[in-house]
Amino acid sequence: MGKSQPQTTAPKNWPAGIPYLYTPVYSPRLTKSQLQAIRTLPPDLNPTDIIPRALKPGPSANVRITAITDPRHPACGQCGLFAARDIQPGELIVPYLGEVHPGTTTEIGGTGHEESDYDLWLDHDADVAVDAAKMGNEARFVNDYRGVPDAQRANAEFRAVWDERRGEKGMAVFALPASKRAVGKKAASVGIAKGQEILVSYGKGFWGKRREETETWEEV
Length: 220
Ligand SMILES: C[S@@+](CC[C@H](N)C(=O)[O-])C[C@H]1O[C@@H](n2cnc3c(N)ncnc32)[C@H](O)[C@@H]1O
Description:
Layout: E1 25-26, H1 32-38, E2 50-51, E3 63-67, E4 79-83, E5 92-96, E6 99-102, E7 119-123, E8 128-131, E9 143-144, E10 156-163, E11 168-175, H2 178-181, E12 199-200, H3 204-219
Parallel strand pairs: 1-6, 2-10, 9-12
Antiparallel strand pairs: 3-4, 5-11, 6-8, 7-8, 10-11
The structure holds S-adenosylmethionine.
Protein name: SET domain-containing protein
Pfam families: SET
Domain SET: 61-203
């Protein structure tokens, strides 16, 4: 295969019917100023929040998509993302790819992303989000730590990044840095061991909204 040809292999256990992405897909509803906003280097960029030019497009050797079969796991019957090798504290695990789209709209019918559980803000001020519900990469399988057996807390986080490969803002999954997980001697032992599930905190807002939706549904 020639070097310039696109890859066509999705990772193992990738669901049929959901396109596997190597690069973001851009909604035609994005305005020029929104595109310009996400392509402007943030002045306060933290040097750790970068996807380096050298990072190859997926599938990623860092992670494995795995079906969850443990009945004690709250996402049993779905999939999760697991470390395929030992991951160091603070290490970039995998970029978060999906459809880049306007976050809100006054159009009748909405954006179609309102109900998505895979939608993250890319640039709140510019009203741009990235949704991996209908297309994406491995990062869409990261579960929340709440209720997961033996997981007292998250071991990873979503962070806003600057993707040097495209000159564009993005989101990515990182292992929690040692400073956020432990202090003193314990800090040396953190990171994500090969085989562990990669778990973030979706935030209380996510679960609060979920509860409201369920209660409203149950009342009907
Ligand atoms: C971004 S997806 C994560 C991947 C998902 N497990 C899958 O296989 O597509 C978010 C969805 O995963 C499920 N989920 C993730 N973490 C959970 C948790 N701690 N408890 C219950 N459900 C969870 C919920 O259904 C949530 O809407």
